[in-house]
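Exercise 3.2. Students should predict the tertiary structure of the chain below and write it as structure tokens, then compare their answer with the key that follows.

Predict this chain's 3D structure.
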Amino acid sequence: MTRKVFLKLLGLFLLLLVFQTVAMELILRHFMEHLAPEVLRRLVGEAMWSGVIALLVALPLAAWVALGITARLQRVVAFARRIAQGDLGARLNLEGGDELSAMEAALNQTAERLEQNFAEIESRRHELATMLDSMQEAVVAISNDGLVLWSNAVMQRIAGMQIRVGRALVESVRDPELLGCVKSALESGEVRIGRSSSLAPGRVFEINAAPLPTGGALAVLHDVSRIEAAEKSRRDFIANVSHELRTPLTSIQGFVETLLDEPRPDAETTQEFLGVILKNATRMNRLTEDLLALASVESPDYRLASQPMRAGALVEDAIESLGGIVVDSGITLVSAGAPEAVVLADPDAMNQVFGNLVENAVKYGKSGGRVLVGARENGAEVQFSVRDFGPGIASEHLTRIFERFYRVDKARSRESGGTGLGLAIVKHIVLAHGGRVWAESELGAGTTFHFTLPRAAGPQAAQTPLAPAGTAESV
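Answer key:
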């Protein structure tokens, strides 16, 4: 570049020199007729020497001017390359007040505006990415070629490290429903809806794939696993309640129809049938009461009237108030001891918890002859227990026995009159107190139900009223 500028300046100077020579020749020819030959030769020599001297002076001057202009142009070229590479903070140093300085100032203004525009675009892109990452739904954008353009954090957690920008979606995700919805949206240009149950184990997603205005498609996956589980729980609950009610209703209907068909039934038969009807009606009533109790403890509005109480008083009151339940069963309620630690508990709710656990132990632990009720300190909690010495429960049932209507032995449970809701009520009451509940069992050695209550702290621990005696609600 320096050589080109220098040659151009030198050429311009030579043109000027030739123009000067021609002009001087014309002038000399005009005066040749009036000048002597010696004077003419002298003038021609001086003109030639002046041209040579001017040429010698012009050469370094042209080189110096060319180098200055070339250096400034090279800085402009380097500046343009930095901008092209993404360095929008690059700026030119302004020199002088010539045309090149005006161009450099204009280039600086252009770079500054580009930097501001790109900063605003990057800020908006970051805000959009943050917003999409904060969504509970998984989002992934796909190009027309099926390549991943972008995915939010939820989608990355679901698909793992396999999903990356620039990689084909079919290589990252193997779910046929998602791939089918995206492909259909790309081909038809219309919104497609699907449902996936194999994208992540145990989770169900509702897929919504829509075409993008600039090409490609956007897939949004909404996790409906909880909705599905709640719907299944609702269906199972209705089916269980219907089944539990249908059995005693069918029995009542059959015995009533039999009595009506007999014009004069004998007193003994009538008494027997009425006893069966009463038994089934009582069972229906208990089921209704348990359903209402379960609905109450599962409600968000359920509130406890907790107060500081001695653990020993709770155990003593449970044994005293529940003694009437076991009188005719041949079972003996025995205290396994309890500390004087103070816990926060609702007395009525605790009567219901102990009542359900003791009645459950009496039903299924008759062969053991006794039921132990006790408590012990366990750090910041007090752990209560109700133990029977019956046949025990197999280990595969221990994690599910607190579910609604779950029975280890359905035939035996119905024969004993249980509703299948007692342990579910216990679980919700204990959780509402901030405690835990679980069961331990060994086949042939009985079952122990444990639950914990938080200990009272500070001034509350000084207040230790006895648990009021009362009859527990049993199921």
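Discussion points: The CA atoms of residues 389 and 446 lie 4 Å apart. The radius of gyration is 48 Å.
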